[in-house]
Amino acid sequence: MKVEDTQVTAAIVKRFMRDFLDLIELDVAVVGAGPSGITAARYLAKAGAKVAVFERNLHVGGGMWGGGILFPRIVIQEEAKEIMEEVGVKLESREAGYYTADSVEAVSKCTAAAIDSGARVMVGLTVEDVMIRERDRVAGVVINWKAVELASLHVDPLGISAKVVIDATGHEAAIARIIQRKVPGAKFPTSTGGVMGEKPMWAEAGEAEIIHNTREIYPNLIMTGMAANTLFGSPRMGAIFGGMLLSGKRAAEVALEVLRKKRA
Ligand code: 48F
Asked: Which tens digits make up the pLDDT trace of 6-48?
């Protein structure tokens, strides 16, 4: 078979540019491709929303790949069993209510299902800022290559518009922190009005609080996953992932509600 190097170049550039141009105006931009972000993206795409996930690493999966201390197995509770089964993850149960899964299988199948549902997953891109309109409304994300950030190059970023942004950045709650830093007077519905920071590990409390913490905390900005617990000062929970999956599903519901209100 004849292979022309320049044709390979042209095919990649043309395909990437076409795909990229198609996502510069989104219904929902999800920041972070961990379990909560990927799950939110799948439910949103399934419901017909135009959604893209921006992940700074080249790999997806966030903290789910490594299981507990690099034992690549994760625990899921009964309440989230269905979310794993929908994407075909095999679950084992030795004790009532606790299921285990292979974390590599879980990340791969959750991601494949999100993409098959129509979600776009962009890797190697850091969300370094947000776009704010009318002073207090999130209107999109500002992206740059993580490689640019690592090399400390002075390169300007690009803006992507989104009707809703989901902060699925895990322990950092990076998007909420950007707003706290850059928008004077911004107040979140926490007891301090700011990002409270996660509390020490307590799986039961963290899992119990995460769904309540999954909500719109600033116009058009929804928190999900560990970022939601970091915002509201709830505990972390270690290698149990039911709450992350349920929070991702809930974030998609909240985002669809925000989109519905905008259309009405
Ligand atoms: O940390 P992560 O997996 O978040 P999650 O979905 O799940 C948390 C669990 O993995 C675990 C846990 C279980 O009980 O507590 O920690 O809440 O995934 C967050 C993803 O966001 C990316 C980061 O690389 C990771 O893959 N990320 C963080 N900040 C940015 C970002 C950013 N500014 N731009 C793009 N990606």
From this structure: 999 999 999 999 999 999 999 999 999 999 999 999 999 999 9
pLDDT grade for 134, boundaries at 50, 70 and 90: confident
The CA distance from 15 to 59, in Å, is 20
Would you kindly state where each structural domain of the chain is located, as residue ranges? 5-63+116-263
CA distances from 80 to 44, 99, 250 (A): 18, 10, 12
Q: For 64-90, what is each residue's pLDDT tens digit?
A: 999 999 999 999 999 999 999 999 999
**244 CA distance to ligand 1 centroid (A)?**
10
Distances (CA, A) of 264 to 7, 28, 40, 125: 47, 17, 23, 33
Nearest CA to ligand 1 atom 33: 127
**Candidate CATH numbers 2.60.40.10, 3.50.50.60, 1.10.600.10, 1.10.540.10; the one for domain 5-63+116-263:** 3.50.50.60
Cα separations in angstroms, 17 against 3, 10, 128: 22, 10, 21
Ligand 1 binding pocket (C-beta < 6 A) is: 31-37, 54-57, 62-64, 126-127, 168-170, 172, 174, 225-227, 236-238, 240-241, 244
pTM higher than 0.85: yes
Q: DSSP secondary structure string, 74-115?
A: EEEEGGGHHHHHHTT---EEEETTEEEEEHHHHHHHHHHHHH
Rounded to the nearest whole angstrom, what is the distance from the C-alpha of residue 245 to the centroid of ligand 1? Answer: 13
Q: What sign has the CA pseudo-torsion 48, 56, 31, 72?
A: positive
Nearest to 214 by CA among 180, 181, 245, 182: 245
